[in-house]
TrEMBL record:
<keyword id="KW-0479">Metal-binding</keyword>
<feature type="binding site">
    <location>
        <position position="280"/>
    </location>
    <ligand>
        <name>Zn(2+)</name>
    </ligand>
</feature>
<feature type="binding site">
    <location>
        <position position="63"/>
    </location>
    <ligand>
        <name>Mg(2+)</name>
    </ligand>
</feature>
<feature type="binding site">
    <location>
        <position position="63"/>
    </location>
    <ligand>
        <name>Zn(2+)</name>
    </ligand>
</feature>
<comment type="similarity">
    <text>Belongs to the alkaline phosphatase family.</text>
</comment>
<feature type="active site" description="Phosphoserine intermediate">
    <location>
        <position position="107"/>
    </location>
</feature>
<keyword id="KW-0732">Signal</keyword>
<feature type="binding site">
    <location>
        <position position="317"/>
    </location>
    <ligand>
        <name>Zn(2+)</name>
    </ligand>
</feature>
<feature type="binding site">
    <location>
        <position position="318"/>
    </location>
    <ligand>
        <name>Zn(2+)</name>
    </ligand>
</feature>
<dbReference type="InterPro" id="IPR001952">
    <property type="entry name" value="Alkaline_phosphatase"/>
</dbReference>
<feature type="binding site">
    <location>
        <position position="361"/>
    </location>
    <ligand>
        <name>Zn(2+)</name>
    </ligand>
</feature>
<feature type="binding site">
    <location>
        <position position="165"/>
    </location>
    <ligand>
        <name>Mg(2+)</name>
    </ligand>
</feature>
<feature type="domain" description="Metalloenzyme">
    <location>
        <begin position="279"/>
        <end position="375"/>
    </location>
</feature>
<keyword id="KW-0597">Phosphoprotein</keyword>
<protein>
    <submittedName>
        <fullName>Alkaline phosphatase 4</fullName>
    </submittedName>
</protein>
<feature type="binding site">
    <location>
        <position position="167"/>
    </location>
    <ligand>
        <name>Mg(2+)</name>
    </ligand>
</feature>
<dbReference type="GO" id="GO:0004035">
    <property type="term" value="F:alkaline phosphatase activity"/>
</dbReference>
Length: 403
């Protein structure tokens, strides 16, 4: 059976399943409320295969957003499974996330593998497995963002996390220790390829400043040395600045992403945009709500791009110990959440009425969904390094070549 036939069969099966559950309630818990066009049952989007090249690639990363968490986010937000926008995308695979020496990944190895095509050790940022965390540098591995810079595209990184945290840092920096924020952030101003990240927006302002100060570096000294202001809020970055760097205390991911998209779409040669939103479910409501909010943002971004020249990917760097083991339609998924929060909620295992969370990373595969140019390459089981190949092939690039 051809890949097209396989996708059509999968789409038909999913559509039948949606119809079978279509009469259920859209009740929500955890902040999402009311009827929405997104809650209506509908078959997945159909997309013909494209042999063209992508001008643009957008990678969305739900940090710790495993299969169970994505499912739970739909049930929490809409009262039903399969209601997220990304769950209607036509191309789906399962991405295996292990580092080279273990089974459970952290964000450093997980994201490094996605953006470089090389698995490494936990704690190591975009260096090969010859590196040793905190003790020895490994071979720097070129990231898809660095390839984009090398080819003259515009690039952007947006995160709700510190801009030096493992996931965003893996796109623009190389370090044998994800904790070396004071060394990681200045690398954005001394790129190995091109002129560096064009739009860089994240949080962590105080902590990054403290670590840089230990190395005799400050935001002001970096900004003067590179003639590039570093703003403390998104609002402070003037619209006339086409290459803003924002390191804030907190980030509105939606506002930052749409700002970045506007700036990157103004270029002629295309762009790479990476957007991260934390989805750890240490706090179940917060983590699942972040997935639901990221999904709404993805739908909004999709409405602003042309899928004939743009590839969009959603995935996670690793999974997390959440399971849905109870619940009924029409009832809140997170029954018992308020009582858990009232007693400080500091247990290693969160036990709610219908949900249990073992607050740790886990080893199972994570979802990878795609739509647009080159999306047909996202299918089946594969190592997370395959997503690097998907993006590179979509752009029409060969690793370590200048063509």
């Amino acid at each position: 059976m051809t890949p097209v036939s396989l996708r059509l069969v999968s789409a038909l099966a999913l559509a039948i399943g949606l119809c079978a559950s279509g009469g259920a309630s859209g009740a929500a818990s955890g902040g999402a409320s009311g009827a929405s066009a997104q809650t209506a049952a509908r078959p997945p989007v159909e997309q013909s295969q494209s042999q063209g090249r992508a001008k643009n690639v957008i990678l969305f990363l739900a940090d710790a957003g495993g299969v169970a968490s994505v499912h739970a986010a739909s049930v929490m937000a809409y009262g039903e499974p399969l209601r997220l926008h990304i769950q209607q995308w036509p191309n789906l695979g399962l991405s295996e996330t292990s580092p080279v020496d273990a089974f459970v990944s952290d964000s450093a190895n997980g994201m490094s593998a996605i953006v470089t095509g090389v698995k490494t050790h936990n704690g190591v940022i975009s260096q090969g497995p010859d590196g040793e965390r905190g003790r020895r540098d490994g071979t720097p591995t070129q990231t898809v963002l660095e390839y984009a810079e090398q080819h003259g595209l515009l690039t952007g990184v947006v995160t709700d996390r510190p801009i030096t945290d493992a996931t965003p840092a893996a796109t623009y920096a190389h370090s044998n220790d994800r904790g070396k924020w004071g060394e990681i952030f200045p690398q954005a101003f001394s790129p190995r390829f091109g002129d560096g990240v064009d739009v860089l927006i994240g949080s962590g302002r105080t902590e990054i400043a403290e670590q840089m100060a230990a190395n005799g570096v400050s935001y002001d000294s970096l900004a003067r040395a590179h003639d590039r202001p570093i703003y403390a809020t998104l609002e402070a970055a003037p619209a006339a600045n086409r290459r803003p760097v924002v390191v804030a205390e907190e980030i509105d991911v939606r506002a930052a992403t749409l700002r970045a998209l506007d700036l990157l779409q103004a270029g002629d040669k295309g762009y790479l945009l990476v957007v991260e939103w934390d989805a750890h479910t240490d706090d179940p409501r917060e983590g699942l709500q972040n997935i639901a909010d990221l999904d709404r943002l993805i739908a909004e971004v999709q409405s602003r791009v042309d899928l004939d020249d743009t590839l969009m990917i959603f995935t996670a760097d690793h999974s997390f110990g959440l399971q849905v083991d109870g619940g009924r339609r029409g009832q809140p998924l997170l029954e018992g959440y308020e009582a858990w929060k009232a007693r400080d909620g500091d247990e290693r295992v969160v036990r709610l009425e219908n949900v249990m969370v073992n607050r740790t990373h886990t080893a199972e595969e994570v979802p990878a969904l795609a739509i647009g140019v080159g999306a047909e390459r996202v299918r089946g089981y594969f190592p997370n390094t395959h997503l690097f190949e998907v993006m590179m092939k979509a752009f029409g690039w060969t690793p370590s070549s200048g063509d």
